[in-house]
Amino acid sequence: MELHSIKAKLVDVFASSKLAGNGLTIFWNCSDITEQDMLSLTREMRQFESIFVLSEPGTSPVRARIFTMEEELDFAGHPLIGLAAHLHEEYGSEATHHWTIQLNKKQVEMISTQQEGFITAEMNQGTPEFLGVLDEQSRVEVFNALNLPESSRADMPCQVVSTGLDYLIVPITSGIEHAKISIPDFEALLEQHKAKFVYVLDINTFEGRTWNNEGTVEDIATGSAAGPAAAFLHQAGLVKTRQSFQISQGRFVSRPSKINCLVSDQESELEILISGDVHSIANIHFSS
After folding, report:
1. CB atoms < 10 A from the CB of 61, how many?
2. Which DSSP category does 194 fall into?
3. Domain boundaries in the chain?
């Protein structure tokens, strides 16, 4: 891998100011690097995810791949929001631009808008899929695995919802500060319900929490979870169609973040729109 040929940028996503929100490294000029290179670079940056641009400047759709420190993801939220802002900053000439991003299994439409000192980016996550509801025994098992007391339970089921990644939405009414992954084989528990990750959601305050499946790293702001959470809240009647609202996250890792959500309806189908502000922090130059 020729490090000196790779370009990289550090941005903060879903952030109200610099050094807030969810940090992201965007790598571009990456057409010649391997999958292992992408994984190694992501581990070097030690953020929840990194995104790699493989296509040439000016081509559409923009081909990109997303990695955590453990694996490649077919979809993720804050890397795409950050990428749209990066494309606007590097190649944009108008106040607003549309971008099409091609991932491994999903094509995402994005809009970026220049603000004063930052860029707002929006993604259309498409129509949500409601993939299954947990029975009572399974719900109790999940609550115990997440260190959640029975008193925090919302009067609605735990449900697997997807707009690209399958999330188990765990609705609560209180006690989000107690939530944590407290068993060593939590990923196996999620696999029983065909979920990739979990999202604990306070339905009163619209605050969420999620972690890697080992429970060792808490995510700061998760756009891929906000979409399923928004769909869940809409299905439960807690938000209306075309009603803008925010999901907050990151309070417990001292990086408060705000994710803007909108459930739209197009030709009798729901669409989930997720947006946030992106602040550019630094350009990274690699040694040869």
Report:
1. 14
2. T
3. 3-123+277-284, 129-275
The answer to whether 270 and 128 are in contact (CB under 8 A) is yes
H/E element holding 276? strand 269-284
Query: Got the DSSP string for 126-149?
Result: -S-EEEEE--HHHHHHHHHHTT--
Under a CB-based contact definition with an 8 Å cutoff, are residues 123 and 76 in contact?
no
For 217-262, write each residue's pLDDT tens digit: 999 999 999 999 999 999 999 999 999 999 999 999 999 999 999 9
Asked if domains 3-123+277-284 and 129-275 share a fold, the reply is: yes
| Neighbour-count burial of 2, counting CB atoms closer than 10 A to its CB (0-12 exposed, 13-18 middle, 19+ buried) | exposed
pLDDT digits 0-9 by tens, 170-179? 999 999 999 9
Q: Encode 30-57: b = buried (16+ Cβ within 10 Å), e = exposed.
A: beebeeebbbebbeebebbbbbbbbbee
Binned at pLDDT 50, 70 and 90, residue 22 comes out as very high
Centroid of chain to Cα 198: 12
Cα angle value 93/98/103 (rounded, 5°): 120
- Classify domain 3-123+277-284 by CATH number: 3.10.310.10
- Are 84 and 123 in contact by the 8 Å Cβ rule? The answer is yes
**DSSP SS3 for 27:** strand
Structurally, at CATH architecture level, domain 129-275 sits in Roll (3.10)
| Tokens linked to 66 | 């997303």
Q: How many helices (H) and strands (E) does the chain have?
A: 5, 16
